[in-house]
Amino acid sequence: MAMEPVGHPGGPLITGFAGRLIKIDGNPRPGGVILTPETALDWEGDDFAAAADLDPLPEFILLGTGETLVRPAPALVAAYEARGIGIEAMDTRAAARAWSLLRGEGRWISAAFRAL
Is 45 left (phi over 0), alpha (psi -120 to 50) or beta? Predict the structure, then answer.
């Protein structure tokens, strides 16, 4: 019998951390990861266009910047805001908590998490 948290709208769940790895649905993922309401993709870099490639567009993108908060470049923020997508940057652990809370509310968001 499979169990999911009550009220979870589906899609990938962050289930914890293992050292520097992020656990998605119980499976440790090396490197970074992009999450959408429907899937989890490996991510190794600064290009997180896949996080915005949704229909409809996400309300905003959570950007987990690793162990500490690193502000994204103003030009990057402006480029996404021009498309109607905000970027909320925070350290990866805080972004993971926000992802779980907001997806639990059924919010249509996406995320890009750097490894710790």
Answer: left
What does each C-alpha distance from 25 to 53, 56, 57, 66, 78 come to in angstroms?
22, 24, 24, 20, 33
- Residue 94: pLDDT band (50, 70, 90) is very high
Pinpoint the alpha helices (H) of the chain: 74-82, 92-104
Average pLDDT over residues 59-85: 93
Distance CA 16, CA 11 (A): 16
Bridge partners, residue 30, by sequence? none
Contacts of residue 51, defined as CB under 8 A and 6 or more positions apart, other chains included, come to: 34, 35, 36, 58, 61, 110, 111, 112
Report the DSSP beta bridge partners of residue 60: 86
Tokens at 93, concatenated: 């652990």
pLDDT in tens, 28-66: 998 899 999 999 999 887 787 888 888 899 999 999 999
